[in-house]
Amino acid sequence: MKILIAASEMSPVSTSGGLADFVEGLSAHLGAAGHEVTVVLPFFRCVRENKALGAKRSKTRFSLPVGSEILSCEVWEATGSGGVKLRFIQREEYFDRTGLYGVDGRDYQDNAARFIFFSKCVTEIARLNLPDAVHLVGWQAAMAAVFIRNQKLPVATVLSPFSLDFQGNFWSHDFAFTNLPGSYFSAEGLEFYGSMNFLKAGIVFADAVALPGGRFLAEAQTPVHGCGLENVLREHSAKLEAIAFGFDEKDLPVVKVDAKLRLAARREFFPSSDPKSARVFVVDSISTGGEGIDLLLQALDLIPSPDFCVALLGPVPNDSTEVLDIALRRHSKRLVHLPEVDGGILARVLAAGDFVLVPGALEPRSAFVAAAMRNGLLPVLEYCPGLLDLVRDFDPVTGSGNGLVFYRHSVAALADVVKRALFLPAGEWEILSQRLRETDFSWGPAVARLEELQRRLLRKTGRTSV
């Protein structure tokens, strides 16, 4: 298939965070699967100054209305890793700037016009090249779904919000830059509590919305995780697709552990505990957004066993620092807090660990938990919607499952599942640990799901893929 991906950034040419890495992984793995992939990006200053990229002017030029102005666009081109085609939208007053979205912690005031123009250019490239599918990533490209629908282009559109926290919410007067009929600025369209919301527009007008797994799909439709868009997502639930996007090898380091390294790592972190009998639970506060840390610290009082050792990684919420200080004094022999973790510390922690414990609702995409599982640490997790995409409770009778699950957010439930883990026979732990090491965290399953989705959407357009 011919797949056009549109986003505001992509590693390594332009990046401000995880979005760029996601676009790089998405394009590379779709290309490796045999698809003809083109990525459209703004021609930011950092891209223009990247001489190693070798970007050159293409023959593609066009002009588009943005409000009362007609703006011209030049398209530059380059080739990314794996042969992925890169196309850059040049408009100096919009993209030749110091920052991608703003400077000194403040957004550029004309971001609405900038990314409306970008989305219109994406639509024009889609019209000229007629790909089978257009995959839009983030709010910055989401408006292209509106323009593609308005122009009735026979292409399938898939939106990956990437993050619901960032939506592209702008003043209502910025709607004039779209040049769309006034009927589009309504509760059924772009209007969102009196403002114009790019991400909402993408959800409404895209043919499908790909969310990263059942865990995210379920939680995104709740007020806690929907970031105000939960009602929009519920209204369009029929087009929501749960696709657990994969991790690259660099995101999931595998530690080669032998008995000597394991004992040495345990002695380093828990010098007062018996390294042979200890059961080490690794807890990453970021994987729960800090939720559940208080439960964990209280559970230490209910489980006096010296074999219950906890390595708590990352910063804790401000309201948990006092409780943590008390717990560190009370349980100094079996509790260690590592607020900052580099690659070396992480490797030694994974070598020492038996379990990865998540005392609260798991964040939808936790590379840390996936890395821990890849290294054979058994997941001990609180049940939440969509969790079964990742972990199923171990049944000792049938032998099914790959982790331990508790079903109530309470100290007692957490203590009970820890006791269950402590008494898990060594043979069963070994079987589950090996099962986890063999879990497929790659992009393969996600690419297959995307291929099936895009072909299904393409059939609705009356076209067949090429």
Give the helix/strand layout.
Elements: E1 2-6, H1 18-32, E2 36-42, H2 45-48, E3 56-66, E4 69-79, E5 85-90, H3 92-95, E6 102-103, E7 106-107, H4 111-129, E8 133-137, H5 139-142, H6 144-150, E9 156-160, E10 169-170, E11 191-192, E12 195-197, H7 198-205, E13 208-211, H8 214-220, H9 230-235, E14 240-242, H10 259-269, E15 279-284, H11 293-302, E16 308-313, H12 321-330, E17 335-338, H13 343-352, E18 355-358, H14 367-374, E19 378-382, E20 404-406, H15 411-422, H16 426-437, H17 444-461
Parallel strand pairs: 1-2, 1-8, 2-5, 8-9, 9-13, 13-14, 15-16, 15-18, 16-17, 18-19, 19-20
Antiparallel strand pairs: 3-4, 4-5, 6-7, 10-12, 11-12
Helix pairs in contact: 4-6, 6-7, 10-13, 11-15
The class by helix and strand makeup works out as alpha/beta
* CATH class placement of the largest domain: Alpha Beta
Are there runs of 5+ residues with pLDDT below 50, and where?
Answer: none
For the report, how would you describe the main beta sheet? 9 strands, mixed
Number of contiguous helices: 17
Computed Rg:
25 Å
Keywords:
466 residues; alpha/beta; 6-stranded parallel sheet; Rossmann fold; 20 strands; 35% helix
Question: What would you say this structure looks like, in words?
Answer:
The protein has 466 residues and is an alpha/beta fold. The chain has 2 domains: 2-246 and 444-461, Rossmann fold; 251-437, Glycogen Phosphorylase B (Rossmann fold, 3-Layer(aba) Sandwich). Helices cover 35% and strands 21% of the residues. It contains 17 helices and 20 strands. It has helices at residues 18-32, 45-48, 92-95, 111-129, 139-142, 144-150, 198-205, 214-220, 230-235, 259-269, 293-302, 321-330, 343-352, 367-374, 411-422, 426-437, 444-461; strands spanning 2-6, 36-42, 56-66, 69-79, 85-90, 102-103, 106-107, 133-137, 156-160, 169-170, 191-192, 195-197, 208-211, 240-242, 279-284, 308-313, 335-338, 355-358, 378-382, 404-406. The strands form 4 sheets. Strands 3-4-5-2-1-8-9-13-14 form a 9-stranded mixed sheet, sandwiched between helices. Helix 4 (111-129) packs across helix 6, helix 6 packs across helix 7 and helix 11 (293-302) crosses helix 15. The protein is elongated and about 75 Å long. The protein starts with a strand and ends in a 5-residue tail after the last helix. The mean pLDDT is 91.
